Every structure is written in C-alpha cells, then in structure tokens.
C-alpha cells in the first residue's frame, strides 16, 4: 500500500451560525494525520453550541503531492441531523473540497457522526478516514413544556351589563341622531318640491315657434324649394297638435286630423285657423313650378301669428314670466331669436 507521504490533510471547517463568526478555526480532533476544525470555540465540556434555527456549515478539504482521489459516502450521517451538500465538490489533481450544510432536527444535546470518506494518492490503496463523534448542544428559545403549569380551558367570559346612566346616554344619542336625520330629510324634500314647482317648462306654442324660426333660417324659400318648405311646415304643425292635444297627427291626412280635432278643439281655440294652415300647406306642396314665393312667406307669417295667438293668458302664466318675453320675441320673427342663440327642443 502506498502511503500518502504525509502530505494528505483533510481539513473540516465548521461555521456554526452568522453570530458565531471567528477568524481562526479551532482544532477539535486529529486522527491519523487528519485534522478536524471548527470556527466555534467549544465549552469546557468540549461541546459546540448552536441555536435550533441555525445551520452548521462544514467544509471538507483534502490535499496531496500526487494525484489525489476522494470517494465521499452516499449518506453523510445517520444521526439526527439533516446534511446536504451546498454544491458540487471542487476537485483538481492535488486538491478536493466539498461544503456541507448541517441542520439540527431537534433541540437538546446530540452527537454529530460523519460517515468516513475514502482517499487515495497516485492510484494507491483506498484509505478510510473515520471521524470521532462531535458533541453539539442545540439550544431553543422555547421553554420546555411543564405539565404542572398547564391551564384548563377557560369558560366564556360574561360581559358586564351597562349601567343605567350609559343606557340612558345611548338612548338619548339615538333619538338625537334620528331627529337630525329626519330634519335633514324634510328640508331636502321641501327644497326638491319647491325646485320642481318653480321649474319653467316651455309651452307647446313656444317650442313650435322656435322650430318655425329654425325652419325659416334655412332659407328654403329664397332657393325656390317651396314644396320642401310646405312639407316641413305641415310636419311642424302636426307635431304641435300632438304635443298640445295628445292626438296622433303625423300619420293622418288633413281631413282625418281635422275630424279628430273637432272633439278636442273648439273654434275659439283656433280650429279654423289651423285647418286653413294645413290646407294651404297641402296646396303649396303640389303647386306648379314658378309659384310666387310671396305665398310661402305669407304662409309662414300666418303660422307664426296662429301660434302666438293660441297662447292664451292662462297658458303664459303656467309657462312662467321668463318664457313670456321669449314668446313675444319669437312672434316678431326668427332673425332676432336666432341672433341671440335662443333654442328650444
């Protein structure tokens, strides 16, 4: 068997935890030229101390003057420890090293027994390097369980009944809060109701006059489009009848519409004037080319006069004082109302 020439040295470097940082490792044991070291200084009993949450780092290193071969064990320890390599082994012709991470499995005192490794130099016989057990004390911040200090299951705690003063105070607070909510709700309801009552809604006549102003602003008569003007004016009047009297007018002929208006419109409300306007629109729609534009302009003026006259004093009062000037302005003609940007739906 070839000897290692006294040049083989296996150094085990152990780092206990982050708080146990020591510059120079401490020699724990030396067996057959193999040295075991640890950065943690053992106590008087030769034990290493480590916290249960810490990890021990072990570095095994072997060197030789010739070609070095190392055979690590399949399982590093069978004692109550969890040992795993931190990475692959680092090896060259004369050096070999590996880093192990050792985790304690339970607090208390235990022995760390590493399985032997086999080494040989320059193809010689394998030598087994055996380690002595390493005593380690694993500490824990948890106290040991003591049956004498155990407590029985406590009963459900009963809440103390409120005093009469506290009960009266809660009742008064509830009543005050309810009163405040009621007053605020009543004020909001009154404000909302007053706002709705004072909301000014344009009358049907005001809306129709605004549509007539927009129709005249298109200047269809100046371009000789009398038939289109008459058609749009008739639709305007029929829409006014629908809004005013709730009578379906746009899908009826003039004769049918006038017959329906006999039941809801008397002569004093302008039934004859409305009939005259609708009949003149029908005649203008089918008038031959070259019809005088004066007829169309007279028809527009007659429609504006009709809508203005139908708006009675009672209807103006319902519409509000703000809409009465607008109605008078629209009756004067479309140019002034459009110049000031007045629009109605």
Could you please describe the fold and organization of this structure?
The chain has 345 residues and is of the alpha+beta class. It has 2 domains: 131 residues, Immunoglobulin-like (Sandwich); 136 residues, no CATH class. The chain is 38% helix and 20% strand. The strands form 3 sheets. Strands 1, 2, 3, 5, 7, 8 and 9 form a 7-stranded mixed β-sheet that branches. A 3-stranded mixed β-sheet has the order 4-13-10, with no helix packed on it. Strand 8 and strand 9 form a beta hairpin.
Inertia-based shape? elongated
Mean pLDDT: 74
Major sheet attributes: 7 strands, mixed
For this structure, the quaternary state is: single chain
Number of helices, counting only DSSP H or I runs of 4 residues or more: 9
Low-confidence stretches: 1-22, 312-324, 326-345
Secondary structure: helix percent: 25-40%
Number of strands: 13
Rg (CA only): 55 Å
């Amino acid at each position: 068997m070839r000897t290692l020439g006294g040049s083989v040295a296996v150094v085990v470097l152990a780092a206990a935890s982050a708080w146990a940082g020591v510059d120079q490792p401490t020699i724990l044991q030396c067996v057959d030229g193999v040295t075991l070291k640890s950065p943690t200084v053992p106590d008087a009993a030769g034990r290493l101390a480590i916290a249960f949450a810490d990890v021990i780092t072990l570095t095994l290193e072997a060197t030789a003057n010739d070609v070095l071969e190392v055979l690590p064990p399949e399982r590093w320890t069978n004692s109550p420890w969890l040992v795993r390599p931190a990475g692959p082994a680092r090896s060259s012709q004369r050096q070999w090293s590996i880093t192990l991470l050792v985790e304690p499995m339970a607090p208390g005192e235990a022995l760390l027994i590493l399985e032997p490794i086999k080494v040989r130099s320059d193809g010689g016989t394998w030598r087994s390097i055996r380690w002595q057990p390493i005593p380690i004390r694993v500490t824990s911040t948890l106290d040991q369980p003591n049956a004498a200090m155990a407590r029985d299951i406590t009963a459900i705690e009963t809440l103390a009944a409120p005093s009469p003063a506290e009960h009266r105070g809660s009742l008064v607070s509830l009543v005050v809060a309810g009163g405040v909510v009621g007053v605020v709700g009543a004020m909001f309801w009154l404000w909302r109701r007053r706002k709705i009552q004072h909301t000014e809604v344009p009358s049907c006549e005001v809306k129709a006059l605004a549509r007539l102003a927009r129709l005249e602003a298109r200047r269809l008569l100046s371009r000789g489009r009398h038939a289109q003007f008459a058609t749009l004016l008739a639709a305007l009047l029929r829409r006014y009848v629908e809004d005013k009297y709730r009578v379906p007018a746009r899908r009826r002929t003039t004769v049918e519409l006038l017959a329906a208006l006999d039941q809801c419109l008397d002569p004093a409300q302008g039934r004859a004037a409305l009939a005259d306007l609708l009949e003149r629109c029908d005649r203008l729609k089918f008038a031959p080319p070259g019809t005088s534009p004066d007829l169309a302009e007279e028809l527009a003026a007659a429609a504006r006069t009709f809508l203005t006259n139908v708006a009675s004093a009672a209807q103006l009062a319902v519409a509000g004082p703000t809409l009465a000037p607008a109605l008078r302005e629209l009756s004067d003609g479309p140019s002034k109302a459009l110049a000031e940007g007045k629009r109605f739906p």
